[in-house]
Amino acid sequence: MSCEPVICLNLEExxxxxxxxxxxxxxxxxxxxxxxxxxxxxxxxxKCLCKHLEVKQKVTSPSFVILNEYKSxxxxxxxFDLYRLENEGIKTIINExxxxxxxxxxxLVEWAEFSQDALPxxxxxxxxxxxxxxxxxxxxxxxxxxxKKVVEELLK
Length: 156
Ligand SMILES: Nc1ncnc2c1ncn2[C@@H]1O[C@H](COP(=O)(O)OP(=O)(O)OP(=O)(O)O)[C@@H](O)[C@H]1O
Ligand SMILES: [Mg+2]
Hints:
Elements: E1 6-8, H1 11-25, E2 30-35, H2 42-52, E3 67-70, E4 77-81, H3 87-97, E5 106-110, E6 123-130, E7 136-143, H4 145-155
Parallel strand pairs: 2-5, 2-6, 4-5
Antiparallel strand pairs: 1-7, 3-4, 6-7
Helix pairs in contact: 1-2, 1-4
Bound molecules: adenosine-5'-triphosphate and magnesium ion.
């Protein structure tokens, strides 16, 4: 299921979008892939989402550490960035990603394109595009019944 893009004029609007998404996934969890160029706003969106899931720690970009885990919020959050993974690392992570899509957890994956398409079926994809200094578009794509309902509700 692909949808019309949501335009956010500034970070406050991105924060509001993340807030609304957080409410829709906080009882079920979700596996969310974030696509977009460098500086598009993948980490910024992840930070907003974590804030609304009441993560207490400071959320930082996982680009050097590959994975940050936050266990202080309404549900566990696993925040990946696959950009710097080497071949061996990719193989290991690919096998693990499926596990990170199970259960009541939120998994966020930046640069999911580096996983060579080995993504869990049930997922929400968000493509973020830079439209101007603070203007971004967010295009959602949902896979699986639960995620389709979440995205439908989000875009109502
Ligand atoms: N409406 C907006 N939505 C999201 N980010 C915004 C918006 N307006 C401005 N920004 C800024 O754009 C920057 C996006 O950087 P961010 O680190 O999130 O990019 P990224 O997609 O994670 O890049 P990378 O591929 O390097 O990880 C941040 O400084 C953020 O504050
Ligand atoms: Mg980032």
